[in-house]
Amino acid sequence: MAGMNFCFGHCPTPGSDVALIGQQHLLLTRRSRCTHRNTVLKLYNNHLPVYRNQSTTELQFTEDFIVQRVKMTSNTITVSLPQLAKMIDHSLLHPTMTDADVIAGLRIAREHKVATACVKPYCIPLAVKELAGTDVLVCPVIGFPHGNSTTEIKVAEAIAAVKAGGAEIDMVVNVGKVLGGDWEYVTAEIRQINDAVKAEGALLKVILENDYLSDDHVARLCEICTDLDVAFVKTSTGYGFVKQADGSYNYKGATVRHLRLMREKAGEKVQIKAAGGVRTLDDLLHVISLGVTRIGATATVAILEEARKRGIGNEPVEVSFKPMKEAGETSGY
Fold this sequence. Notes:
Its EC number is 4.1.2.4. This is deoxyribose-phosphate aldolase. The protein is an alpha/beta fold and 333 residues long. It has ten helices and 17 strands. Helix 4 packs parallel to helix 6 (183-199).
């Protein structure tokens, strides 16, 4: 993914840091690196929708940092319907889905020309058949949903999935090894699977399952995936349920805080996939503004129908969106 620098001042400044706090952007640039005291905001652009933040700016100088706080007064983004569709992996992963359910979902993916149909491994031949003659790719999951298979099994499953017709592979990390701090194991596993998938001509998305992890775990995984040249890091499976205080099980999925953290810690070439909780057009537009380039969704039809109702068509138009809540419970894709 190419990076573009936008300079608020006289010259580009290497080493600028971007921290996103609440509904404000806090841009920090070390004075020692910026003789003109300007701030550079790096935006990620891969021929994707253009995010515009209508804002007022207040500069505040401190001894060590130049702080530019950009207060958001409205949220707009320029998008087209085809761009939105190609940001969606239509999810067909619920364990109760019959073949008839999967076929119906594949026809939705085909009709709406999404990026991929995300399927369980045994459904790959069915997906290949139903999506033949389209540009909708097949995206199988492996080690799903808990990531507990051995590395050897995950590698074999990934290779088999690509050979059967998978173009993008979504793989779950070994969460227990992450929580235990066995980074050598975690790194070696991701490396082996990524190498195997790339050798077969496909790409890998690494599912972190953020609900189980601390911010430090999420950051470290993003850094590992960057070092290994993984194509995507993904927030969640949609099935990482956590026991709540009342004894029930639920999960948060893709949160604003985690998406900001992932975009900050992952390298420029690593894309972000948000899965779990992105159910409306406003949700999709907001996560795009955070640097997300793909979502996993079952609400594909509702999202794209709402886009049409709001005047989004084949040509890019500017639309406003309501930001997602900073935190909150969700339940599935």
